[in-house]
Specification:
The chain is an alpha/beta fold. The protein has 11 helices and 12 strands. 42% of the residues lie in helices and 17% in strands. The strands form 3 sheets. Strands 1-2-3-5-7-10 form a 6-stranded mixed sheet, with helices on both faces. A 4-stranded mixed sheet has the order 4-6-8-9. A two-stranded antiparallel sheet has the order 11-12. Strand 11 and strand 12 form a beta hairpin. It is globular, with a radius of gyration of 18 Å.
Length: 264
């Protein structure tokens, strides 16, 4: 890719994908969406790629989620191409591939960043990393899979607390819930993720891919069990985005002030 918004690098059978917007806390805009989605398509279609590692540039942020500043300016976070739109937020959340994906979470993973991690198969986190779905604080909701995937991946009552408060989950606490596989010092993050990716890549690739498809119920590039959740997501998001609160939240964020909610 010539656009440096997303960096890709191959190490043997491993494709490393880096969200490269540290100045914007690696927030997702249309270019990030296209870059990640295209990288996943490359991985799925190239037999020489067996595992994908996704991470963020810098030491502070894996991904801050949607670019609310861009949103407040009226910019779309999705590309114009309907086929690329179908990949879901960040080109990933409704874009299952057969190749295993390891998220190397190098800092906070909030909102859509957490949803990227939830869509990954394995999470390695730096010890200072945090996870969270703070959408309720800005008049939105975790509509990129977080509203159902968090409750699938940690105990439901805990998921409800963190989703409804918007509070962050420290990496060590996330590991206690089983959301994170390993917590390591930042300096060891990528080496640990790559070592695990290489261990997986050493196995029979078709066996690994079949195992993932069966485990997640992937058929014809879709997770059938997710369909009713996405349908509900669409209905709720359509209604919510018509509200004044949905406009007020990103506006207040961009203006660095406390939002004034009207519940309408």
């Amino acid at each position: 890719m010539t656009d440096t918004t997303i960096l890709t690098e191959r190490q043997g059978y491993v494709l490393i994908v880096t969200i490269n917007r540290p100045e914007a806390r690696n927030a997702v805009n249309a270019a990030v969406h296209i870059g990640i989605g295209t990288a996943l398509e490359e991985a799925e279609n190239d037999p020489e790629i067996r595992v994908v590692v996704i991470t963020g540039a810098g030491e502070k942020s894996f991904c801050a989620g949607a670019d609310l500043v861009a949103l407040s300016r009226g910019e779309s976070l999705y590309p114009d191409d309907p086929a690329q739109q179908a990949w879901g937020f960040a080109g990933m959340v409704s874009h299952p591939i057969s190749k295993p994906i390891i998220a190397a979470v190098n800092g906070f993973a909030f909102g859509g960043g957490c949803e990227i991690a939830l869509m990954s198969d394995i999470i390695i986190a730096a010890d200072h990393a945090q996870f969270g779905l703070p959408e309720v604080k800005v008049g939105l909701f975790a509509a990129a899979g977080g509203a159902f995937r968090l409750a699938q991946q940690i105990p439901r009552k805990l998921a409800m607390e963190y989703m409804l408060t918007g509070d962050p989950i420290p990496a060590a606490r996330a590991a206690e819930f089983g959301l994170v596989n390993h917590v390591v010092p930042l300096a060891d993050l990528l080496p640990t993720a790559i070592a695990l990716a290489e261990k997986i890549a050493a196995n029979a690739p078709l066996s690994v891919q079949a195992s993932k498809r069966v485990a997640l119920g992937i058929h014809e590039r879709r997770i059938a069990a997710d369909a009713p959740y996405w349908e509900a997501n669409t209905l709720e998001r359509t209604a919510l985005m018509r509200s004044e609160d949905a406009r007020e939240g990103p506006r207040a964020f961009a203006e660095k002030r406390k939002p004034v909610w009207k519940a309408c």
